[in-house]
Amino acid sequence: SYAENRTVKDPQLTEDVSVLHKAGANTQGILQYLRERTGKKTTRRDVHNMVQRHKTAEQAGLTDAQRAFAVMEEFCRQHGGNSADILVDSDTNVARVATFQSARMKRLFKAFPEVILVDSTHNTNVNRYKLFCFVVHDVFGKVSM
């Protein structure tokens, strides 16, 4: 089927999709809602594209730092056990450390605290530096990097 036959152009339905997404509805639920309302054979990819267009428009005027905070906040909202934190140097107002843990990561670490797995398969900048460091907490609360 052609994209113009599947695409939802009604602004009210587009707004409904963004509200449903913010409320936590999954792609399949949004897809079913659109098909019932429009009668079109909208695909999951069409729904994904609508959500992405809304996110892009929502973040259009934000700085990189604001977008990073928004991503971290969304990560935490996705699951109650997820957590994220950004440590900012108070003198320079520069972010020094960004950490995030999914609920699954926490559960696995609690079960196997002596195991560390680091995946650095992707180069992170033009100089091909791996941008990570280890922060180790011992049983006495001492922290070392």
From TrEMBL:
Pfam families: ZSWIM1-3_RNaseH-like
Residue intervals of the ZSWIM1/3 RNaseH-like domain: 73-143
PANTHER family: SWIM-TYPE DOMAIN-CONTAINING PROTEIN
Official protein name in the record: ZSWIM1/3 RNaseH-like domain-containing protein
Species this protein is from: Phytophthora rubi
Lineage: Eukaryota, Sar, Stramenopiles, Oomycota, Peronosporomycetes
